[in-house]
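Provenance and format

Records in this collection were gathered into a single text stream. Each protein contributes a sequence line and a token line. The two records reproduced below are adjacent in the stream.
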Amino acid sequence: MSVPCPIVFDLDGTLIDSAPDIHACVNTVLRENAVTPLPLDRVRSFVGGGVELLWSRIIAARGLDPADRPVLIAAFMARYHDATALTRLYPGAAEALAALADLGHPMGICTNKPLAATRNVLAHFGLTGFFGAVIGGDSLPQKKPHPAPLHATFAALGAEDAAAAGLFVGDSEFDAGCAAAASVPFLLFTGGYRHTPVEQMAHEASFSDFSQLVRLVLEMRPRVPAG
């Protein structure tokens, strides 16, 4: 007897393009502090490691005082926790989630995005019901690429002992490193925020269009042992 394997997804750069909202919130804070705004591509290049790393990179890019980081982060979070107006789902992502749910795959989210912002954006796009577990960047002391958040997501899905038989879907170096550290097969979405060429990133398979995802899941790891 076997059951469909658990699948965990990253969020920013994988299911959603949230960089425009992050960019808008960042530049609002910079303008309020009389600092020259940053272009979208620069802010996008800073996304993936969580809010603290985002602002460390912004501070370095604009030569700001690192001691001001807590105040800047607080001002940013006041806007960011419910920023969804400029965020978009990647084409076909919702349909792929629905198809995987129909096949019986338990699904979770493992992201470095703060948990409140994660839950807000999932609700905004009507995706909450797909996910039996959601781990955010502030859910644990560790963030990706540390394996703890991914292990915790599988455990919350009831698959603590079967994590290696599940799949992790993400877009970035943080995700690839996390999957490798957790010994979980990694599916790379190539349309996200990575900086490294695809061929230089460790992954089991890659896809550029969500219409390809269900087929990849079925080909790679369609079922895992039950009990």
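Adjacent record:
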Amino acid sequence: MATSPNTPHFLIIDARFYVDLADELVAGATAELEARGATFERISVPGVLEIPSALAMAILSQEDRPRYDGYVLLGCVIRGETSHYDIVANESARAVMMLAIDEAIAVGNGILTCETGEQAWVRARVAGRNKGGTAAAAAFEMALLRRKFGLTDD
């Protein structure tokens, strides 16, 4: 699809560990970006801990040719019987925030951290809290802010 150079273009990175939840989050995000006239690409990673690595790779891939105005990060961590939940939730959030600040990128963080699958669905469902759409809206607004501060090649 041919787009204007001023059309915002985003990368959606979704974690596939909970496939159905990921698909619902992506549905909300893509609907929001389309409603705002933005374009997007999507890549998938196995789990939430892989999202920061994929984000770092995407940032590095842009050094010679900027392609993305922002990033929408989607996934879910559901508490289990061990402390693994805390590690995944905390370390992924820390790494995403570090990249967002260090690289001054526009990020919409839609990585859910929930106690139960039921809580996750309430937040993910497009007809519910639509956190995928919320994350996409945040990324879009932050991309506009980057433009306002002259941090784009436009």
